[in-house]
């Protein structure tokens, strides 16, 4: 075992510095493993839509294209595969942002206006599902943040709330601003069990893989929310009950 051998060699050479050296190696190995797992997961997730795309292309070229109905059906599936690939690539690029990147991206936003702008991006689906989104907080609150990281947090929480809400329901976004900015996004959707709540912030974890895939989910949204909240010096937590709904709380420092 390499770790034990290294520990032994370090022991021989430096005596009292053993612990530090072992810790460093463990840390590096852990990061390497996370990276390997991520690449493995990404490859797996990319493979499925690509295989499907190739399969349908071949079938069309082999003659299915002579049948207009079949052609439309296959092209619709292919369009969904391509959109899925696009979302995956967007999320992977999103996750590759480094906290040292764009260090000068601080901007001041008026929270109310910003939240309303984010909601407006989803007017189409909100109308289609007949979902109302309300904002509750002190108007005229200004907040300075790194939008590169702050915007994807709000976007992903809002997208999920819409995604996992039933038709004709309400989503509430409430916030308070003091030395911290606290935002709570509450939905009355499918909710989730305690066990799932522990894992949803992991990259690629999905409660219902088939459902998430069908609806275009990548399983990366909440990982982005968690990692970005931490980059901004804050945290995220969830409270949820199956069939009743979920509330995601973001707490960020107000510096
Ligand atoms: P996805 O792209 O699948 O939505 P996320 O990382 O955003 O991936 O979320 C991980 C999983 O957590 C989802 O697949 C879903 O099962 C669950 N989830 C996230 N948000 C909600 C919510 N508001 N209500 C119920 N389940 C949710």
Automatic annotation (TrEMBL):
Q: Could you list the residue ranges forming a coiled coil in this record?
A: 75-105
For this chain's UniProt record, which GO biological process terms are given? cellular response to phosphate starvation
The UniProt entry's GO CC annotations, sorted and at most eight, read: plasma membrane
Superkingdom, according to UniProt?
A: Bacteria
Q: Which GO terms describe its molecular function?
A: ATP binding; phosphoprotein phosphatase activity; phosphorelay sensor kinase activity
What keywords sit in the KW lines? ATP-binding, Cell membrane, Coiled coil, Kinase, Membrane, Nucleotide-binding, Phosphoprotein, Transferase, Transmembrane, Transmembrane helix, Two-component regulatory system
Q: What does the UniProt entry say about where the protein is found? A: Cell membrane
The UniProt record lists the Histidine kinase domain at 41-255
Q: What is this protein called?
A: histidine kinase
Annotated source species: Enterococcus hermanniensis
């Amino acid at each position: 075992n390499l770790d034990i051998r290294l520990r032994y060699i370090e022991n021989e050479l430096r005596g009292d510095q053993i612990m530090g050296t072992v810790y460093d190696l463990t840390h590096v190995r852990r990061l390497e493993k996370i990276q390997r797992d991520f690449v493995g997961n990404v490859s797996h997730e990319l493979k499925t839509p690509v295989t499907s795309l190739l399969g349908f292309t071949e079938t069309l070229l082999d003659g299915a294209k002579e049948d207009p109905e079949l052609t439309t059906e296959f092209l619709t599936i292919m369009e969904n595969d391509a959109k899925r690939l696009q979302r995956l690539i967007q999320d992977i690029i999103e996750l590759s942002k480094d906290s040292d990147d764009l260090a000068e991206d601080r901007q001041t936003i008026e929270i109310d206006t910003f939240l309303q702008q984010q909601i407006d991006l989803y007017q189409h689906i909100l109308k289609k599902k007949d979902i109302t989104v309300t904002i509750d907080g002190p108007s005229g609150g200004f907040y300075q943040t790194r939008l590169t990281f702050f915007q994807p947090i709000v976007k992903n929480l809002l997208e999920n709330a819409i995604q996992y809400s039933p038709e004709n329901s309400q989503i509430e976004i409430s916030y308070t601003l003091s030395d911290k900015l606290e935002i709570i996004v509450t939905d009355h959707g499918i909710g989730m069990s305690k066990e799932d709540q522990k894992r949803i912030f992991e990259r690629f974890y999905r409660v219902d893989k088939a459902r998430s895939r069908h609806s275009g989910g990548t399983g990366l949204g909440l990982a982005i929310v968690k990692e970005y909240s931490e980059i901004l010096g804050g945290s995220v937590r969830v409270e949820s009950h199956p069939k009743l709904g979920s509330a995601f709380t973001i707490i960020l420092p107000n510096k």
